[in-house]
């Protein structure tokens, strides 16, 4: 072993979590080293070639609003972009962009290489050195010892990972990259609980072997919306690639049914638990046996490659079965497979061992983020990465951790769910998980989180002032629209008739017109002579705030209620099992999770509202006793 340089923070992993954690730590002034078993794994997308999608788009915009990097990198490397769910309300609008995987990796690696205070190193970490439960350093397989004050674990899907394609099982990370072989044992020896999860990916094929005439082209949006609030649409606009839609059929399902016995998933070879919301094709055929077909999207992996990704058809069936099943699909009859589908299982932790700061309970300075916490997805990983990096810095600075509440953002929901409930399968974010989703929209992530990013030190003065100016324009315009009354003019009548909404006989407030389902702020521009020329992102906020005013204020009231319990902090030294009237299970769960607040306590599985009332009474009595002293 040899002594390497003293650093502040060691980030273990160069995936989506590790990149955000390392950038946040270095940008906040910490001497940071990012370790990856292979630097070729930096920000790779071992699965779908896209960033964003339902609720995941929200996470990316929140990361950007806090000062993270993912949104900027995908804006530079997307090959198709689309706003999803525009047929529904703005709460579920979600941006999704197809990425050029290779360029995404290159851009992120280049960004890391050019970040002051940050070094990237190709090395496998095999040991975390602790002294009296405090982080002291990390050790590489090459014997280098890096003394450090905090560590962020972001090892993703590499820990004791193995890949399965039928009977072919290899000790390997994704894309045949080297797995991490020794750190799991070190963590177990420290008393950290690990278990096995699994996920899977579909085959890749050569574009030249596919027949696109048998598929339906899928186009990107003409109107581009950047992921990053620091970018303007015109700055990132460029020609977009196509994706294609095709379907499985009865022949596909028959090939799969006839070979289920050779599937590691159904053959019991896979011990890890997989994501219910991202099932393999064999899983779909078994679970949804009544479905005649399953939709598949054929997506390019990038501009300088002929490899195509078959979204919706991940599998771990043997190679010969894969060739047979894929070739039953319209357009894939003569497909040339460049990489076979496979399942990967790997070690990860039970995240209830973490605090809401993502620090391990009982291990000072040891943080964890990403897929290793039991989540699934690039976006979920990056969201935890930036919070883990920020809080590792706060730990070293002796400052309170930054904890986003469920009412602040999807990042708050993600971490709160993982830490309080843990996860029985890879946790994937969904809009249905966010009880305050009407307030946590992807369009207002900057208004919710950029002031926090500025306070932390990750958002520049210039960007913060730009947000303040945006807020001023929004407030001013809402005031104006609410103060304008439109007379029943011919132009107004013509417009109302054109959009098929009720005519008016007397004056009507402009804001009331905006609220009509057939109308919105932009549609009324032609009859609103006084209207200032405002940027699209300001117009969007004015429209949403006026149109959904009732829903928004109702949800704000719910948030006030929520915050009452959320801000009722719990003493760290409480022995819950000694509290009279508290059920045994609740006492045990509370002692294990050690919630930060009454609100957090109320979300722990096994703690009932009755238990919370008992706790409230106990806290009141304790306060009275202390006041009497
Ligand atoms: C086959 C496959 C299929 C997937 N399918 C889906 C899907 O369908 N849907 C979905 O949402 N997500 C899917 N994912 C998950 C997605 O890839 C991850 O969510 C995401 O990449 C996690 O990011 P991360 O930063 O946590 O870890 P990763 O991206 O896995 O990166 C981990 C990093 O840690 C490094 N590392 C690990 N151990 C050590 C060590 N001891 N020392 C030094 N470096 C180390 C690795 O080199 C790597 O750089 C899939 C992943 C794989 C592999």
Explained architecture:
With 629 residues, the protein is α+β, with helices and mostly antiparallel strands. Among the domains are: 204-345, Beta Barrel (Elongation Factor Tu (Ef-tu), domain 3); 461-556, tRNA uridine 5-carboxymethylaminomethyl modification enzyme MnmG/GidA (Arc Repressor Mutant, subunit A, Orthogonal Bundle), CATH 1.10.10.1800; 568-628, DNA polymerase, domain 1 (Orthogonal Bundle). The chain is built from 20 helices and 24 strands. The strands form six sheets. It has a six-stranded antiparallel beta sheet with strand order 16-17-18-19-15-20, with no helix packed on it. A five-stranded parallel beta sheet has the order 7-3-2-11-22, covered by helices on one side. The protein has a four-stranded mixed beta sheet with strand order 1-10-9-8. A hairpin with a 6-residue loop joins strand 18 and strand 19. Helix 2 (56-66) runs parallel beside helix 10 (378-397). The protein is globular and about 80 Å long. The termini are far apart. It binds flavin-adenine dinucleotide (FAD). Residues 12-18, 35-38, 41, 46-47, 124-125, 154-159, 174, 180, 183, 199-201, 278, 344, 370-372, 376-378, 381, 428 line the site of flavin-adenine dinucleotide.
